[in-house]
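Quick one - inputs below.
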Amino acid sequence: MSVIIVLLLPLVAAALVCIPFKKYWASGVTVVSSLATLILAARVAWLVSDGNSVTADLSVGWLKWVAVDGLSALILLLIAFVAATAAIFSVGYMAHGNLQPGKLRLYYINYNLFVFSMLAIPVLAEPTLVWMVVELTTLCSALLVSFENTREALEAAWKYVVLSLMGAGMALFGFLVLFAAMQASGSDDDYTWTNLIAAAPAMPPVLLQTAFLLILIGLGTKVGLVPMHTWLPDAHSQAPSPVCALLSGIETTSILYVILRLFPVMQAAPNSHAETWALVLGLISVGAAAFLLLQVKDYKRMFAFSTVEHMGIILTAVGLGASVAGYGAMQQIVSHCVTKSFCFFAAGTVLLAVETRQIASVRGLILQAPIAGAALVFGGLAIAGAPPMAVFLSEFSILKAGLTQKHYVATGLLAIFIVIAFFGVMLHVNRMVFGAPDSSGDASSPQRKNGSTLQRFNASTLPFSCRLALILAAVPVLVLGFYIPQPLHNLLTQAAAALTR
Amino acid sequence: MSDTPDQLLDNLNALATGLFLLTAFGIVAMRQARGVLNLFILQSLLLAASAALLGFRHHSEHLYGVALVNLISKPIIVPWLLRKTASAEIYTRREVDQVLNIPTALLIALGLAILSCFLGQPLLNAVAPEFRGPNVPMGIAGLLIGAFTLSVRREALPLLIGLLVMENGAFLAGISISRNLPLLVELAIATDGLIIVFISGVLIRAVQKQIGTTAVGELAGLKEVTVEPAEKEETK
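Output:
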């Protein structure tokens, strides 16, 4: 039952938020509901990792479309975690802007609906319904991207909607072809992920491959795979920072989850080349993002490009061989989610402190806003994959798996791109945090303004909730770098097993 | 001209899908926003007709469901929602300068339609004979032409219609090869289409209020190389 409650909580919260009440009512409701969601999702994940079924009593009526296995439970837990920390971060971050109460309510309504649509992705087992909630994530988050209502934000939101829905149109056809393939195989079972895997060997390969490519390209648009990534840095940089954390940290990953669901199906088909496609698209994404990272001018865009890079790494890992690199891919999903959400919280803190997104206008942050500077360095190191952090461990395990599979060229390229991306991120972060304030000649006038801003908005005025969210998000980034708890290890193993037949 | 009712139904279905393709061409060529919307409504009616004919031919209640859902949601609710969310001004817009002129755009659309016949053929060979029909190539053509519309239009309403044409195309192809989708799914997809219209309408209104135009395709401020001028002025 707790799965259903997890889904209902954000909806209830969205309804409650509509009531105009005290100043902190909307944010309070959202924080409480997302914390409750996190606890319930953790319980679901715990039960699943022990090998229990949490959806056995849900076989009646429309509830039969709900199913949770290891992979679903992992994604569910991550969504709930990022949603909870982002809700806490929102309290202080959104209060800073002195928004109209109505506008703030609108933010929290959309926030909760967006979280609901994401939570529904892993727990639904019917591909076309999953397609529907994927489309819902776009639609619920579009108004969050355009929330600041500037010219740039509206442009980003429009691009986001048009390109994502264009991809969704292709993916819809893909899912319908997949259903046709299942019917052509003679199977009369319900259209679910598990039944698809069972029916796969008898499906006509041409239908299966067409469906796979349509879905890979269609949903790949929303994951941000190069060359369909063009909307991603815009949308992921223009939205308010807590929303960026959700978009970049978890939305992309949960859409990638839908693509990953197809791999066990494809393994049944002879000469499907699904893994080759994943390898090629993944490497292109990592490579393009690594070079684009070198020339960014906006630090939120920098983290957005890093998301493209990480999605590419996960897809490459699956392409290297789901049976061997699957565990690493799952680890990378976890570390990407926790780290990227932290990075956007850090970026939001920096934005609160300096009120500009330009990398060139921010210098010597560590002296002027120590918390923001320290968070940015920590986040930059963590996302780039510096040693004791979670991303390092997962990237290392993927590279190791690639070498044992004798994919020397692909693994070598992946390693080179990761190193380039590391330099790209650290170059910018280093300049922003430790650069001498006067070294940037062209940005001397913004600098003065920033100096005055900083005196007004020094570290001590950083809202408590933002600090709390930073600390909460930093814990798994650091801990998962050298210690993976046993239940999480079981969950990762089960999730990796779901990638193979 | 037909000896059995089934053949007659097949011919009627072929007529509906052919007209479907024609409306897609019309949407590419039409300059007037209002006309694009009307063509889209006509196209949705043809989709519903094709679904109903196929449903009658193959005795499938699911396809009747598809037809009914399409009949209600697209021709009636979509224009109503658009009027509610975005202002009436988007109907009166006329695109003077398109990326491509009309003959070129139509030629490319024609090329896409021919391409879709080749793309559809392997799919048709893989399904059972009774599923074969003109729906799959025409649907793929709708999908491709919708995507093409998205890439050449600048005005908000034609862009939105382009998205919906893609969805119509996916459906037209989908209903012929994958019948018996649960009705819940049909309803869900139809609801989704309406939410698309609602959200886009809200966005269009915001763009109109903030920027004073509905030519959303001309928004191109977000790029890597240039430092945003607006922000620089602020910081002085």
